[in-house]
Amino acid sequence: MLRIIFLLSLLFALSNASVQDFCVANLKRGETPAGYQCIRPIHVKSKDFVFSGLGTAGNTTNIINAAVTPGFVGQYPALNGLGISTARLDLAPKGVIPMHTHPGASEVLFVLTGSITAGFISSANAVYVETLKPGQVMIFPQGLLHFQINAGKSSSSAFVSFNSANPGLQILDFALFANNLPTELVVGTTFLDAATVKKLKGVLGGTG
């Protein structure tokens, strides 16, 4: 009998053990490889779990005729530690999200309006491209180069989601031409000539 009581007491204790349901990020403290430190639950409000940043179209008046509005942990602190995030894509006619990669997450694209041609390149250099209509979804595996282009004559938009609170982003063109990587190194590691490299650096603000 005493053994049964002991086991029931142990089960009750385990069922009531402290579980950390969430960890709303304290953005005033530095980010670590494990994420941000938590705001104390006593200071967390219901509004901390709501994010309104994706309700308005982004400004597409720029060189790529497109806008990405992120809902990552830096904008939406309640995502901290949950392994998810989101963003909004807006593409004017001829708009493009250039070839890029997310080192920390896979991406799911859900088309809201218009039509979007999207695709990715596998590590074996196989190409997967589709033109998507509203309501269609496409997946981009983690770390692979991918892109989105407005395939119509009117504006298009989409929501994307990631399996990380901070998926990371590296845009291929910017990595090559928007920094101070010397022209001769870009020439030496690509099949481009110096004149083309300097022209692209001039467009994207790079030097060297």
TrEMBL record:
Domain Cupin type-1: 52-198
Main location: secreted
Chain residues that bind oxalate: H102, E107
Keyword set, alphabetical order: Apoplast, Disulfide bond, Glycoprotein, Manganese, Metal-binding, Secreted, Signal
Disulphide connectivity of cysteines: C23-C38
Cross-referenced InterPro entries: Cupin_1 (IPR006045), Germin (IPR001929), Germin_Mn-BS (IPR019780), RmlC-like_jellyroll (IPR014710), RmlC_Cupin_sf (IPR011051)
Cellular component GO terms held in the UniProt record: apoplast; extracellular matrix
Locations listed in the record: Secreted, Extracellular space, Apoplast
Signal peptide span: 1-17
PANTHER family linked: GERMIN-LIKE PROTEIN SUBFAMILY 3 MEMBER 3 (PTHR31238)
Protein name: Germin-like protein
Native organism taxonomy: Eukaryota, Viridiplantae, Streptophyta, Embryophyta, Tracheophyta
